[in-house]
Amino acid sequence: MTETRNQSIWKNFIHLIRQIRLPVLFLASAFLLNLGKAAIELTIPEKIAGLADLEFTAVNSPVVKTAVSICLTLFALALAEFVGGLVSTYITYIAKARIHRNFQAAASRKVFSLTAAEAEARDPKEFISRITTDTGFVSDFLIDLLVIEIPRLYFITSTLVKVSRMGNGSLLLGFILIIPVIVLGALWSGRVTYKSQTRLQNSIARLTARLAEKVEHVEIIKAYNKTEDEIADGDGFIDEMKAAQKKTTMAAAFNQLIANILYAVPTLIIMTAGAILLLGGDITTAQFIAYFGLGATYQKYIADHLTLWVLGKKAQGATLRISEILTLNEDSGGEQKAGRPDDLRFEHVSFSRGGTKTLSDVSFTVKNGSKFAIVGGSGAGKSTLLNLIEQFYRPEQGRITLGGVDIREFEISSYRNLFSYLPQNAPGFDGTVRDFLCYGSGTPHSDEELNKFLKEVDMLEAVELNGGLDYEVGPGASKLSGGQRQRLAVARMLLAGTKMVLADEATSALDYEGSGRIAALIDRYAAGKTRIIVAHDLSTVQDADTILVLNKGRVMGCGSHEELKNCCPEYRSLLSAGEGAKQ
Ligand SMILES: Nc1ncnc2c1ncn2[C@@H]1O[C@H](COP(=O)(O)OP(=O)(O)OP(=O)(O)O)[C@@H](O)[C@H]1O
Fold first, then answer.
1. Which atom of ligand 1 is least distant from the CA of 120?
2. ipTM exceeding 0.85, yes/no
3. For a disulfide at 486, which of 22, 107, 161, 426, Cβ 3.0-4.6 Å?
4. Cα end-to-end distance, the chain, whole Å
């Protein structure tokens, strides 16, 4: 079981790496520099030992010249190590930043390409932490593995070979004995760090998510006088984070202690083993110096090698979480280009959402060029019908066809290009009024044209009062009223070119007069084109060629206003409810 899990982690990790472009040149340069640095670090102790081996006789003797030459070489090596180290740190930093960026881009591309059903099944905040945090863990591990680990292993094994060649088993034993000390210390410290970091990250994520949700809807908190309760609730989250921070600080202090022990104990082991042999005359002073010099760097490399373990632990969970996202279903379609609008047919379509049947055996035809209205009570499945037409979701049973072709056969972007879609509540993004209007429009629009549409939706005056098309609408277009947003969204839809119109309660936030004017505007611009309109206000769709009446996901009636008035009780009750509401 564990083996399968580990295999799948490596499989996922390799799969993940194959999703991104690696900065090969930077990685190769950093790798070679690190290898060179390790090679220099292997040479320096021997050079120093060479100095100790010299026997000085006279000031001008060749021995002095040799000593000077060794010193110059040592200086050059130290300088090369220093400069190489700086350059390699810089290049590694760039390579890591690029890998991180590429992981983020791949994860972000995937998140935006998911089917609506896959995206809906997850908390959007989860996607954010995958893209921002988890990608960082995977990048750290990857860099350490690709660029630093092999030079590290090269130094460790070369040192063991060099020490074994010194011809004394006790020296080698000293080097081998320090391995378990460092391994145990680093594993312990790694585990403590991992636990405290994970706890801190989780509590930061919880606090961030809570703040994001509550601050966005602060008016509900105020309206229901829940400010004090929310503050008290929030204090709980803050205290939780404080406790996590305390643990992290304690872990850092503990790590410092372990680091000191990891330095002192191996040094003592190496020094004692070497000193005993030196005093016993079993090794020369030069050998002792070479041995001790190698030992100092060796213990640092072993300890660093174990950071790979800690990074791997952090990357393990992150890899699984990102891989899970990368294997989710993408929004994809068939091969066939969708050329032109045509008759749209629902054939015995059923669909469930969140485990509940939302549509049951729904069949109807929208004639090309007709005005088709969908009416029904709250939760009847009206928006779901538009979502299925847009292929945000796929029917569980039955099929939807356009011109007799199953819509799944169409290449998705050419298919969606056939529609102008006005979603419920007319959402918008941060940016200017111009950005709002031009979003999704394939062609550029002049200010004159934009102003013309603003005038059509009775927004020109309000926009000009606020500084015109460059007025910033705020995050989620929050600086606009619901009705203003809806008017702008209608202008955006009309600007995008009236193809087949899908409008989900385009006028729900408008008053009676405004609602009628906007409905008439859509009819005027889209005359002769297919209009599928979800409406609460039945007066705006009574002239529709066909009206579909839905109730709890079932078709109750389908026909003209007059036909339904005569033979569909559900339609009659919707009509009288609507009239009652207006009085
Ligand atoms: N994200 C979701 N997850 C689970 N169920 C959902 C989701 N969105 C909608 N539903 C359910 O699907 C059913 C149909 O919803 P839909 O939005 O299509 O209704 P509607 O007729 O457009 O309603 P309204 O007029 O209130 O907007 C409802 O029972 C609703 O609870």
1. 1
2. yes
3. 426
4. 69
